[in-house]
Amino acid sequence: MLKGIHPILNPDLLRAIARMGHGDDIVIADANFPSSTMGPEVIRADGVSATDMAEAVLTHFPLDTFVPETAWRMEVVGDPKAVPEVCAEFQEIVSRRAGDFRIAALERFAFYERARTAAYIVATTEFRLYGNLILKKGVVHPYEVYRG
């Protein structure tokens, strides 16, 4: 247990987000996502929803401000304009934690292709369909670094 660290950020996940650099992606995956066959290292977060994980990760993780898109969700198959409740919650969390970023929608297989190039996949037990989110890490500015 550490002071000031969200309690669902386990040691493996803390190590992962600390090792990631500017421009690296992390996938927060729901229970149906094929995490183990995507390629990147999988970090288990059993018993945790994807929205709770997004909230926790974004307490320590800046989003990239140097690119037009920095967060992605999966489109609903057959209804690309639909925004599932879980995705609306992702948008609310991103807006509150990271600022004025819009989560872009990717077609299912385009989402899978992007996930294959991620640094890590966090496998949650989110049971709501389309509860998948990719976040691109930004720069930690000097004024954000602990100085003791």
Q: What is the CATH topology classification name?
A: RbsD-like fold
Helix/strand/pairing category: alpha/beta
Strand content: 15-25%
CATH superfamily assignment? RbsD-like domain
Count every beta strand, where a strand is a DSSP E run of 2 or more residues.
6
Discrete helix count: 4
Supply Rg: 14 Å
Largest sheet: 6 strands, mixed
CATH architecture: 3-Layer(aba) Sandwich
Average pLDDT score: 95
Order of helix and strand elements from N to C terminus: HEEHEHEHEE
Protein architecture, described:
This is L-fucose mutarotase. Its EC number is 5.1.3.-. One of its GO terms (biological process) is fucose metabolic process. This protein is an alpha/beta fold. It has one domain (21-139): 3-Layer(aba) Sandwich (RbsD-like fold). 27% of the residues lie in helices and 18% in strands. It has 4 helices and 6 strands; from the N terminus they run H-E-E-H-E-H-E-H-E-E. It has a 6-stranded mixed beta sheet with strand order 2-5-1-6-3-4. Strand 3, helix 3 and strand 4 form a beta-alpha-beta unit. Helix 2 (50-57) runs parallel beside helix 3 (85-98). The protein is globular.
